[in-house]
DNA sequence: CAAGTCAGTGAACGATCGTTTGGTGACTGG
DNA sequence: CCAGTCACCAAACGATCGTTCACTGACTTG
C-alpha cells in the first residue's frame, strides 16, 4: 500500500495552487469551476474529487490557503519594523493587508464574501492583531483619540471600505493612493 | 397601432419590481435569473425579451431603479433635518444610506459590484452630495480636522466598509451599531 | 369585416455546470 | 509473478442557464 500522505497531499496542494492561479487570472469567483481548476492543474475534472469532497470543500481549502498567505504577509511586514515604533508597525501591517487586496482582488473578494465573518473566523483574528498593535501604541505613549479597540476597528473597516471601492472601480487609481488612505486613517485616530 | 408607451412601459416597470422583489428574497445576485424574474412577474421567460434586450439590460435597469430609490431616500432624510444643522443633515443622509444597505443587502451589493465606480457613475454623485454637505458645515462654522472633500470621502468609505462587513457577517449585529458607526466616523473628522 | 400589428407563450437549442460511474494502468506487498 | 490497491480519466447524467423561434390570440386600423 502506498503512503497516502506522500503524493496525495502534494497533489492536493498543486490543485490549490492551480485554483489560486486561475482565480488570479479570472479576478473573481465567476468562472472558478471544477472544470477550470482541473484544466489549470492539468488533470481531469473527476480527479479533483480524489482530494476534495465537493466544490465547496475546494473553495474552503482555497480560502484557508489564502488566509495563511495574508496572515504571513502581515506578520512579515510587522516584524520588518523596529520594535520601538509601534505605530509604524500597525501601519505596516495594514499596508501589507492592502497590498494583498490590491495584488489579488479575486482572492480578497472570495475570502470576504464566502466566509462568514464570525467571532471565531480568520478575519476577526486580523482585527484582534490590529487591536493589540494599537494597545502597544497606547502603552508606548502614543495618544489615541478613541480607545484602541475602536481605533483598530476604525482603521480596519475604513481600509476594507477603500479597498472594496477600489475593486469596484473601472479606473483603478494607483496603489499608493490606497496606502496613503491608511496613513490618513491612522492619523485620524491619533492626536 | 396601439400606443407603445401605454401598457408597454407599465409592464417594464412590473418586471423591474418583480426583479427587485426576487433580489430581496434571494439576498444576492446568485439566483437572479431570467426564469426567476419571469416567475416572480407571472409571465413567461421569453416575454422578458419584449422589454429588455438581454439579461444585462435588465440588470442595468434594475440597478438604475435602485439608485433612484437610494438617492430619493437620502434626499428625503436630509430635508427632514433643520437647515441650520448641517452636520445633522450629513449624518441623516449617511444613515439613510446605511438603512438602505441594511434593508436591501442584495440590491446594495448588486449596485456596488455590477456598476463600475467611474467618475461619472451614480456612486460618485452620492459622494459629491456628501462633499457639499461637509462644505456647508465648514461655512456654518463647524471645525473639520481635514478638508471637506477628504472628510466626505472618509465618512463615505468608512460607512461602506462597515456595511460590507455587516453583509459578510453571519451573525449580524443590530442595525443601530452600524448607525452608531456613522456617528463615530463623523466625530472623527470633526474637532 | 379583412388585414396588419404586436405582446405573450410553449418548446426547444446550445452551452456550462457539479457530480457520478465504470474501467484502465501503474504500483504495492507477499 | 500475482492479487490488491489506488490515482486517474473519459464519458455520461441531470440540472440550470440565457436565448431563439414559430405560433397564437387580442387588438387597431382602414
Automatic annotation (TrEMBL), chains A, B:
SUPFAM superfamilies: Homeodomain-like (SSF46689), Tetracyclin repressor-like, C-terminal domain (SSF48498). It comes from the Bacteria. Gene3D superfamilies: Tetracycline Repressor, domain 2 (1.10.357.10). Keywords: DNA-binding, Transcription, Transcription regulation. The keyword Transcription applies. PROSITE patterns: HTH_TETR_2. It holds the Pfam family TetR_C_33. Residues 9-70 form the HTH tetR-type domain. Residues 33-52 bind DNA. The keyword Zinc does not apply. One of its GO terms (molecular function) is DNA-binding transcription factor activity. InterPro entries: Homeodomain-like_sf, HTH-type_TetR-like_transc_reg, HTH_TetR, MT1864/Rv1816-like_C, Tet_transcr_reg_TetR-rel_C_sf. This is AcrR family transcriptional regulator. It comes from Kutzneria buriramensis.
Amino acid at each position: 500500500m502506498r503512503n497516502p500522505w506522500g503524493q496525495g497531499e502534494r497533489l492536493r496542494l498543486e490543485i490549490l495552487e492551480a485554483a489560486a492561479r486561475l482565480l488570479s487570472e479570472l479576478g473573481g469567483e465567476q468562472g472558478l469551476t471544477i472544470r477550470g481548476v482541473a484544466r489549470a492543474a492539468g488533470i481531469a475534472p473527476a480527479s479533483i474529487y480524489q482530494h476534495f469532497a465537493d466544490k465547496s470543500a475546494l473553495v474552503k481549502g482555497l480560502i484557508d490557503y489564502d488566509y495563511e498567505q495574508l496572515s504571513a504577509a502581515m506578520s512579515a511586514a510587522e516584524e520588518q519594523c523596529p520594535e520601538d515604533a509601534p505605530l509604524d508597525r500597525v501601519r505596516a501591517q495594514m499596508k501589507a493587508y492592502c497590498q494583498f487586496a490590491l495584488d489579488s482582488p479575486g482572492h480578497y473578494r472570495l475570502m470576504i464574501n464566502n466566509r462568514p465573518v464570525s467571532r471565531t473566523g480568520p478575519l476577526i483574528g486580523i482585527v484582534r492583531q490590529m487591536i493589540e498593535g494599537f494597545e502597544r501604541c497606547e502603552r508606548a505613549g502614543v495618544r489615541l483619540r478613541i480607545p484602541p479597540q475602536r481605533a483598530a476597528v476604525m482603521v480596519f473597516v475604513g481600509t476594507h471600505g477603500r479597498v472594496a471601492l477600489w475593486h469596484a472601480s473601472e479606473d483603478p487609481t494607483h496603489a499608493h493612493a490606497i496606502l496613503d488612505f491608511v496613513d490618513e486613517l491612522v492619523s485620524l485616530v491619533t492626536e
